[in-house]
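#struct-queue
[09:14] JT: dropping the first one here, sequence first, then the structure tokens:
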Amino acid sequence: MPDSSPLAVCVGEGLVSFVPATAAPLEEARTFHRSLAGAEWNTAIALASAGVRAAVVSRVGDDGFGRFLRAELDRHGVDASAVQVDPEAPTGLYVKELSPRPDGSVDGTMHYYRSGSAAAALSPETLASDAASALLAEAALVHTSGITPALSDTARAAQDSLFDDRRDGRLLSFDVNWRPALWRGREDHGRAVIADYAHRADVLFCTRPDAEAVFGTADPDRLRALFAEPRFVVVTSPRGATAFDGEDRTDSAALDVPVVESIGAGDAFAAGFLAGILTGLSLTGSLARAHRIATRALASTRDHVD
């Protein structure tokens, strides 16, 4: 893609995902497929697929899984120059457990193995590296999520520094991505942290279940009133989405397509919407692009588009 196109930088955790070849309890699963995962990394890949220059700022271990993740970014056309390699901490991973549904799709349950990972050591120093600084200085948009500040104190400090560095003309995108397991025993604190980021973002994404769990309401108009600061507020559900640009509201229905498994579809949806606003599409056009890209994540048990 041309160097003149806008640059989107996604900051957050990359993971290796292991997905069973068949839907069954883990104790019965014998074969697994390896894949890239991580909300911000999924979004970066989908952005690149939409023709937007995309880069990731993160950390991986000096191990085969870390090399696999960096190679996957390269394969999908995502700039991996600011993915640091930790000589000691391992690359995080998760195992997806698939349960069949009567309609032929599957439900996915994630089991994480990320404690002490290289990505958990994300810090302001990571963002201050030469490679990350160069990308962030050029970025038209920086995308983050509510997962990063839950990983560690240093990861939260890194995210704080992104929100404190409000450069003219640069959009800051925030996807709530409420993960109660990461905030276990400090859920109220986590809600307050995420609400603070939501108020300070330019683009706010939230699913209806996450909005209810974190903000106490899933009603789009109430959320728009509650978060008046972001220019764009996007509320999603399996049935469709409601998006606001200031006071302008647009509703759109999800596309009627076969669903294999839904994990990662929200990241692809966010990428499609961001690609739309970065390239000058209307609110309606940005939503349409978001739905189209999300369908590609719904079509497989991978978390990212291919």
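[09:21] JT: and here's the second one, same format:
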Amino acid sequence: MSDRVLVTLDHEVRDADAPLLHADDLAVVRGDGVFETLLVRGGRALKVEPHLTRLVASARALGLPTQDLDDWRLALELAVEEWGSEREGAMRLVLSRGRESGGDATAFVTVGPVSDRIRDARRDGVSVLTLARGYSVDLSASAPWQLLGAKTLSYATNMAALRYAATFGADDVIFVSSEGNVLEGPRSTVVIAREKTLLTPPPEHGILPGTTQQALYEVASGKGFRCEYAALRPADLITAEGVWLISSVTMAARVRKIDGLALPDAPLADEIVELVDLAVETTGAESAEA
């Protein structure tokens, strides 16, 4: 059992504290690559297949060389085995174009501890700031080279938004389009509740398709919920019976404050948390195990 784990796609367990990337790796100098994050729990990496499917889609959008999915699966299994079964972990799959000077793509799997920030968000919820993302919901269709539906390594803008929000005492961000439509968080999908209906913005608005949100919809549909994709405005967040930021490692972080306005208690808060937990444990049933 290790505090941090690193496995390369040649199935070699590496020293996680030793250098791995070359200085001219395009992941470093241009953010030219894609990644996925998964939760490791109970000796398993959860929702492996949905994440591998999205990794392939993201790689295809960037024109990255296709990697053998069985190689990823074996690397995942080795990483989980090294991590052990007693603790939760945050797993990351990384694929970059490789060195600027040429050669093969760079691909590896890491596992590390789940941060205190994530545990706090699960337990206490989050306060968010709505911020303009600066583009239209139509941009994804008209400018596919913007890679709006791909999970790329180019996260500088997302991290800058989070730092900006922190200066106002907010924990997280919800991006809004130039038309005023709700989009997504820098690292999460927005889901709201209206009685027994769950709503989230459609991926066609240029947002990353959320694997955990999709898993939640799959499970909730069988528990008496209507699950819909719809254009949302910030006012819809304020009037909803609960707002959550959904992601693979944080799971369900309830939004308790938006732009300084405290939201009322969500009647379905406990049920949504239970549904998300069930969703990540049971959907995408193939999982890497220790």
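[09:30] RK: nice, looked through the second one.
[09:31] RK: The longest strand covers residues 33-41.
[09:31] JT: good to know. The radius of gyration is 19 Å.
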